[in-house]
Amino acid sequence: MVRIRFQQNLDDLKEKLLVMAGMAEQAIQRAVEAYRVRDLSICDLVDRGEMAINRLEREIDQMALDLLAMEQPMAIDLRFILAVIKINADLERVGDSARAISDRVRELQAFPEAEMPIDIPRTANLASAMVRKALQAFIEGDAEVAESVLSMDDSVDKLNGAAHYTLLNLMKKEPAVAPQALNALMISRALERVADHATNIAEDVIFWVRGADVRHHMGAAAGNSKADGK
Amino acid sequence: MVRIRFQQNLDDLKEKLLVMAGMAEQAIQRAVEAYRVRDLSICDLVDRGEMAINRLEREIDQMALDLLAMEQPMAIDLRFILAVIKINADLERVGDSARAISDRVRELQAFPEAEMPIDIPRTANLASAMVRKALQAFIEGDAEVAESVLSMDDSVDKLNGAAHYTLLNLMKKEPAVAPQALNALMISRALERVADHATNIAEDVIFWVRGADVRHHMGAAAGNSKADGK
């Protein structure tokens, strides 16, 4: 009976983390949209969203803490709760990156618009897809999906590296647009950090799932815990 | 008896986290020294140190997990262990920032040396001091010391903001040194991130200590309250 309630609470925790992930992903999409159309009202949305994300982070931490305090969780549940705590922290920082992009968009208002020869939305889509996929790996407890996130990180690194190179050359050739180029470069970097957070999340999923595998291989003693609890 | 062993293990965990903090701080000092004297052999040290930091991070996580699994920890110990897990993750990322600086120093080898009108060592000293102070707050369980870290963060933000402004102007005026200026700017940013991690650590210390206070003021009942309601 207690065990069923515990399992229900674990499910609630998972649910809340998914809400958090959705908010973080939306924050990135909005921030990049704000950049694309130079719309400060979207920046406001990002900033308010970041505060909501921070609140939710604390709530999830508290839920995790309460769950750990409730009863003696089994090893597999412990790993799950620890994964939630770590993923939660990374999602909060995805929100910070969205905020950093929004700050850059505000700064850009002081300068004339200049076309930048890099594809920010493409990098953003990749980084967002990584966050989404890392969370999918988490929901499904799938280490292979998590590993695919790690390889996507290389693509984002390459895009960001290319953006860095392109924008640096632009600064050298057209110093007048250096501020706009630097802002674009910083936005590209912020997206690279989002990809890094997705990578961290994927690694935490692997840590959690591998724990599950260990449990699985060790047989019945631990083996019943997860499936049965439901 | 079991309780004494548990307490001993908590102390070991704390000890290990302090080693981790020392390594992270050393990594930053080395990376900035590598920048100051343009010495790639110091970069090698930073890179090897980063791998050691990553290994220690996993070790500490495993210790924390084992402690949570050992017995039903009390609320105050739970908060402590959670704080360790979160601080651990931040320290690992301080190591990443050191690595990022070391990467920049390597890149700089391709360009002629150019004097940059910003004070990187000063920013580095402040950021390092924040990490040290955040850990001191953790050892002493002192929320006031932790709060002083939060206010130091403003100083680092200002230094970084000023560096950004100075280097952007330099890029506009002397586009030939744009690569060197951009590298210096990225190093300044990396140090700002170190300060952000110190801030996160300080916030975790406050979360932990406040938990201790709440428990203390509410007496024995608090221990039960969480388990209730569920």
What's the helix and strand layout?
The structure is a homodimer of 230-residue chains.
Chain A: H1 2-37, H2 40-70, H3 75-108, H4 120-140, H5 143-173, H6 178-217, H7 220-223, H8 225-229
Helix pairs in contact in A: 1-2, 1-3, 1-4, 2-3, 3-6, 4-5, 4-6, 5-6
CATH H level, superfamily name of chain A: Phosphate transport system protein phou homolog 2, domain 2
Strand fraction of chain A equals under 5%
User: What is the mean pLDDT of chain A?
Assistant: 90
> What is CATH's topology name of chain A?
Methane Monooxygenase Hydroxylase, Chain G, domain 1
Low-confidence stretches of chain A: 214-230
Distance between the terminal alpha carbons of chain A, to the nearest Å?
11 Å
Greatest interface (CB-CB under 8 A), with counts per chain: A-B, 31 and 30 residues
By secondary-structure content and strand pairing, the structural class of chain A works out as mainly alpha
H/E topology pattern of chain A:
HHHHHHHH
In percent, how helical is the residue content of chain A?
over 70%
**CATH architecture classification of chain A:** Up-down Bundle
Q: Any idea of the CATH class of chain A?
A: Mainly Alpha
- Morphology of chain A: elongated
- Quaternary structure classification: homodimer
> In this structure, how is the largest beta sheet of chain A organized?
none
Q: Number of helix segments of chain A?
A: 8
